[in-house]
Amino acid sequence: MTADTQDRTTTPPTGGRAARRRSATRTRTRGQKIRRALLWTLAVVLVALGAGGWWMYSHLNGNIESVDLDKAIGDNRPQKVVEGAQNVLVIGSDSRAGENSDLDGGSSVAGARSDTTLLIHIPAGRSKATAVSIPRDTLITRPDCKDEKGKTIPGQKRAMMNSVYALAGPACVVNTVEQMSGVRVDHFVEVDFAGFKNLVDALGGVTVKLDKPINGSKGGIKLDAGEHRLDGTQSLKFVRTRKGYADGSDLGRIGLQQKFMTAMLSEIKKQDALGNPARLYKLADAGTKSLTTDSELASLTKLSDFAKSMKGVDPETMETIMLPVAYDKIDPNRVIAAEPNATQLWEAVRNDQTIPAAAKKSPAKAG
How far is CA 52 from CA 25, 46, 49, 301, in A? Predict the structure, then answer.
């Protein structure tokens, strides 16, 4: 071994592997610090998102009011005939309370009535739906009902359909529809003017197509035949239009309401609103404001699960029908259920069967 070799062997290393080890140690230390910082940052973000998510969930849940139908109605309800089929009653309230006071006539109208009563039947296969509109001027037999304070309100014959809500609230409307149809209502959804307007605006408007013009009277909406993009305020006027369209009756208004409902559902599907979290929250916030449901739907989770179960229903194939009615012989400004057409309609809905053509014909029609 040469001296030169000996020197290289015995001299303590000051570079090379030792330097690399020291560098590696420093690198591990920095890496650990960075990882710890990232983990803490991630933890903070997750906590913030969790808190925000909880706040949003609580906020939206807090928008929803509910009614326990079984408690409000009692045992006087039809039995469910076909498991898997669903019947949802949609009630449009014309309440002028709160935010509604500035909309479409505002404080000049007192009280609240059911401006729209619509029974949506979804068959067991959940691939299509049928919407049956009940004219607000229909004379019906209202059963005994309890109001929101628990006071019993005696039943009445030849009561107007839209007066039921004003007397005893949504549960009585459900009870009335069940008694007149024999159809078990699984769920109900009530929305007022402000909730409707806000939902349309959250969508950015809804496009409707008219085959004839609307020449609205004072305060109404005027539209030429053709396609129109309507905002929330215009949409509210559209679905409430009576005078200036067709024969100016409530029957003509039902046609516009059904047209708008289909257009709105198509808009939601077109925008893939349920697949966009930001847009979904915006819609949910708008849609749940001023919303009342039965207690079995009264949470975001339950509403979401129900909406998912309806995913296979295509708005383009939804059938819209008006309860067959005839003009009342005593009061020509009112209508009554036309028989045997109405009975055939309700029987088909109750048994989840195809609705016969005769059950869709109404002696009283909008001109």
Answer: 40, 10, 5, 17
User: Rounded distance, CA 361 to CA 363, Å?
Assistant: 7
The Cβ of residue 58 has, within 10 Å, a number of other Cβ atoms equal to 10
| C-alpha closest to that of 170 among 18, 47, 293, 88 | 293
User: Which are the contacts of 103, defined by CB distance < 8 A and separation ≥ 6?
Assistant: 96, 193, 194, 197, 233, 236
Whole-prediction pTM value? 0.74
Whether 81 contacts 186, CB under 8 Å: no
Which of 78, 351, 332 minimizes the C-alpha distance to 359?
351
Q: pLDDT of 163-210, one tens digit each? A: 999 888 999 999 999 999 999 999 999 988 888 888 899 889 999 999
User: CA-to-CA distance for 179 and 306, rounded, in angstroms?
Assistant: 25
Six-digit token string for 358:
């005769």
- Per the rule left: phi > 0, alpha: psi between -120 and 50, beta: everything else, 123 is beta
